[in-house]
Amino acid sequence: MATSSPATNTWIKPKISMPSSREFGHSSNSISLLKNKPNKITCSLQAPPILHFPKQQSSNYQTPKTNTIPTSKPTTKISHPKQENKSSSSSPWNLVQKAAAMALDAVESVLTKHELEHPLPKTADPRVQISGNFAPVPENPVTQSLPVTGKIPKCVNGVYVRNGANPLFEPTAGHHFFDGDGMVHAVEFKNGSASYACRFTETERLVQEKALGRPVFPKAIGELHGHSGIARLMLFYARGVFGLVDHSNGTGVANAGLVYFNNRLLAMSEDDLPYHVRVTANGDLETDGRFDFDGQLKSTMIAHPKLDPVSGELFALSYDVIQKPYLKYFRFSKNGEKSNDVEIPVEDPTMMHDFAITEKFVVIPDQQVVFKMSEMIRGGSPVVYDKNKVSRFGILDKYAKDGSGLKWVEVPDCFCFHLWNAWEEPETDEIVVIGSCMTPPDSIFNECDEGLESVLSEIRLNLKTGKSTRKAIIQNEEEQVNLEAGMVNRNKLGRKTQYAYLAIAEPWPKVSGFAKVDLFTGEINKFFYGDNKYGGEPLFLPRDPNSKDEDDGYILAFVHDEKEWKSELQIVNAMTLKLEATVKLPSRVPYGFHGTFINAKDLANQA
After folding, report:
1. Dihedrals φ, ψ of 337, to 5°?
2. Mean pLDDT, range 41-53, rounded to an integer
3. Cis peptide preceding 121, ω within 30 of 0
4. In what order do the strands lie in the sheet with 392-397?
5. Cys staple from 198: which of 30, 185, 265, 317, with CB 3.0 to 4.6 Å?
């Protein structure tokens, strides 16, 4: 790619001002990066403004330039990728391609300059979205024999893997935390010892941008809004027409979910097919490639497919924001054989990040956050909170061959970004759904004036009357906290469960600990990671799959010390909430998304 337009590769040095604590809405020591903004409580993803862009262990990187920002943390260097000059004599492009590249780069330069003349919203400002420990890190090859405090339980034998967003290149314009390239962090346990590695998932997008030495694929949330978003889409497809980029093999980042199915670890984001990632014999990670289930999967797949613990089947959804059918349901046998698609009739493309299964049914939310591409023409975001829409949940037989048996039950004013479990209660003809109801529904994607709340809720869908009820599980208002990211015992998924283990998302968007919640009584017990320590999703690992006690197991979570600027893995007894062991990690682990655990036996049988 020609680099005749250096403006597209220039990182704008942040301007720092000191507002009141209400600018960020949650922390008294927050620092604002946006000037002349009124004080208000903001619900978008926020973090301290120091940028930690790594020097990658790659030939694409040169000696980093340094921007020093006053802070109590160590000074951090911001590295700039070395740009590949595609107009050189070694370029495989012909003269037409070179001319097109130069012209399109010039257009992008003007577009970026125009965008940066106006303050970016916090939901698209990289100085907010990927600052502090939300900032990316370089790849880390395997480090063996890590220091351990305490004793690693015998059942913790295998590898804990967690996904996250980790942009390879510094953003040139808008960027949302969810836009980053996928990176998997892995801690492998063998005979009481632990190793650590982290690697990018080598998506088609990442491979092409690495070769070009710069970001060229549009960022779905940070860039694709308003008229400039339309312009960026046109630029991208124009580059495709001239053969400068290839989007025929997907544009996804594979940064959100992880599932181990049919002897494969799959990394997922709902904008693409999954990617097959292998754990090597020494605990390292390598990308095997984009995985289409031997040619059976021809559409995207959401990042939260459900693995039935009894049948071994995998259930999934796929949504399309452009053309009908907007939503499809399908499943895979335990051997990886795909069913036919079942169209789920919805009027508009709907944000479909998660769903649930029971023993007999799938539970599909159709909620108030929708995609309206026409809003970009009006200058807005295509991710829209439709206040006139009534949220509803669809119940469909897991083995349905079409959507004729789908039954919708309305659940007004409900938006669950994640659903933790669901089960059937035949005695009342109800499906019970456990999820965290988030308000405002679009607070993760768009700026708003209200404080974010994420309330753990029980939703009952009556199959006989078609009515629903919803209540907060934690009834004591003094105990109420924002609960997001977590799980139940996965051996009980789709069956009635007593406990859920969920991240305490406070101060938002950080996670100060996790809560063990009794779903029957509303009792909540909290475990905090420690002073100045924050983490992410707690993973529950059963001690013995045949144990009679549902909570007989351990919680694993990555934790970062923001004072010492060091990271660790904590292992907590899920029954007693006592810290059993701490694994000291060789490098910083950014806050991320979802993970899973692969036991040693399954590791040995990888495809």
Report:
1. -85, 125
2. 40
3. no
4. 356-357, 361-366, 392-397, 407-410
5. 185
Nearest to 62 by CA among 201, 211, 213: 213
- Which residue is associated with the tokens 């890190």? 137
72 vs 313: which has the higher pLDDT: 313
Q: Which of 349, 317, 345 is nearest to 331 (CA)?
A: 317
Q: How far from chain centre, in Å, is Cα 58?
A: 25
H-helix or E-strand spanning residue 97: helix 95-115
- Domain tally for the chain? 1
Amino acid at 113: K
Within-domain flag for 329: yes
- For residues 351 and 444, give the distance between their C-alpha atoms in angstroms, rounded to a whole number: 12
Question: Per the domain annotation, does 35 fall within a domain?
Answer: no
Which SS3 state, helix, strand or coil, does residue 76 take?
A: coil
Range name among 118-132, 172-186, 416-430 with the lowest pLDDT average: 118-132
- CA-nearest of 111, 243, 145, 221 to 176 is 221
pLDDT at 130 > cutoff 50: yes
Among left, alpha and beta (phi > 0; psi -120 to 50; other), residue 261 is beta
Q: Cβ(208)–Cβ(248) under 8 Å?
A: no
Residue 326 lies inside a defined structural domain of this protein: yes
Report the relative pairing of strands 275-279 and 513-518 from DSSP bridges: unpaired
What distance in Å separates the CA atoms of residue 186 and residue 199, rounded to the nearest whole number? 9
Which residue bears the tokens 């679009």? 442
Q: Is 370 inside any structural domain?
A: yes
Report the side by side order of strands in the sheet with 483-487.
Answer: 483-487, 499-504, 513-518, 524-528
Query: At 398, which CATH number?
Result: 2.120.10.30
Residue ranges in 225-271 assigned as alpha helix (H)? 226-241
pLDDT at 90 > cutoff 50: yes
26 is in an annotated binding site: no
Residue 204, phi then psi, degrees to nearest 5:
-60, -40
| DSSP-assigned states of every residue in 379-416 | TS-SEEE-TTSPPEEEEEETT-SSGGG-EEEE-TT--E
Query: Whole-angstrom Cα distance, residue 305 to residue 288?
Result: 20
With CA atoms as reference, report the closest residue to 152 among 606, 599, 570, 518: 570
For every residue of 433-452, DSSP letters joined together read EEEEEEESTTTTTS--SSPP
Residue 353 assigned to a binding site: yes
Residue 56, φ and ψ in degrees, nearest 5: -70, 150
- φ and ψ at residue 364, rounded to 5 degrees: -115, 115
> Which ranges constitute the DSSP H helices of 249-393?
374-377
The CA dihedral of 111, 113, 115, 116, to the nearest 10 degrees, is 160
Q: Could you tell me the residue range of the domain that residue 303 belongs to?
A: 95-605
Q: Is the CB of residue 432 less than 8 Å from the CB of residue 420?
A: no
| Tens digits of residue pLDDT in 207-256 | 999 998 989 898 887 777 777 878 888 888 888 888 898 988 888 999 99
Judged against a pLDDT cut of 70, whether residue 60 lies above it is answered with no
CA distance 244 to 339: 36
